[in-house]
Specification:
The protein is mostly helical and 345 residues long. 77% of the residues lie in helices and 1% in strands. The protein has 14 helices and 2 strands. Strands 1-2 form a two-stranded antiparallel ribbon. Helix 1 packs across helix 8, helix 4 crosses helix 5 and helix 7 crosses helix 8. The longest helix is centred in the first third of the chain and has 33 residues. The radius of gyration is 21 Å and the shape is globular. The N and C termini lie far apart (55 Å).
Length: 345
Amino acid sequence: MSLAELWFVVVAVFWVGFFVLEGFDFGVGALHSFLARDEGERRQAIEAIGPVWDGNEVWLIVGGAAIFAAFPDWYATWFSAGYLALMLVIVALIVRGVSFEWRTKLESGRWRRTFSAMLTIGSALVPLLLGVALGDLLAGLPVDSSGEFTGDFVDLLTPYGVLVGVTLLVLCLVHGATFLALKTRGGLQQRAHAFARRSVWPAVVLTVVFAVWTVTISAAGPWRIAAAAVPALAAVAAAVLLRGERDGRSFAATAVTVGGVVAALFANVYPAVLVSSTSSANDLTVSGAASGHYALTVMTVVAAVMFPVVLLYQGWTYWVFRHRVAAPAEVRAATSGRAPAADQL
């Protein structure tokens, strides 16, 4: 395996890690107002992801930075093509981050509702827009022989890209619901279970359609078919496990489904990194878009040292905050030694 191919795999791992980890954050953020019945439960949902959401976003930053350093031609073409969409993603991430920090700054119902709405919209937009962008890598964009994007914003909305965006959004919602079922108690947990069971079958259908479409438009090969089949099988497994309310296993299955969709995209676009819809001769390839040998060598050494450290630190964070989050009513009841009233759950 060449260094360019190695870094293509590393980039894919970063994007898979981002959607697996930040995917449930997006799902919780988008669902917190719909599944919660009062402010206490909305806080419960947000506190479930509070210690980890900002750390999970690092995977997106590193994924983009890795493309910039390892594949500058890919970065220049893909990011310049999606300038407007990228700005929307950045705004959504900013709005989302501000909502986490500011929604409890004032004791005002309107203030909290406003920032809850911002959190919901921002959490839904990011996986949708990034999913469309990732789908465009395989569907193809109008790129000329110089690697210049020659289309406009409408050209970014390829049918396959839109499917990938909608699929990742729905999967993030299911992933977030299974995370809430795993991390919370009381009424919020029950409603998260119910939502996950209802929404997992549309997610199964979308994932199967994604798998078939992906194999259809990519080059033939058994390993490409296998890569596309993994998320479809994991989605079916998640549906079965959710019927038995097996929280840990259901969450693991939705994680494999979300990560598998992104991994299948990268597996099927290889050896290209961005397909040109203008001409296959204009495709950006792993070898053609990569940085020089020296740059890739230095990056490999740095990554070999730092990546395990990041994994250990993030793993430790999840271990420390592994316990379920109770609603404020449950916390008060536990402190006073009496059970919370039914209407408080």
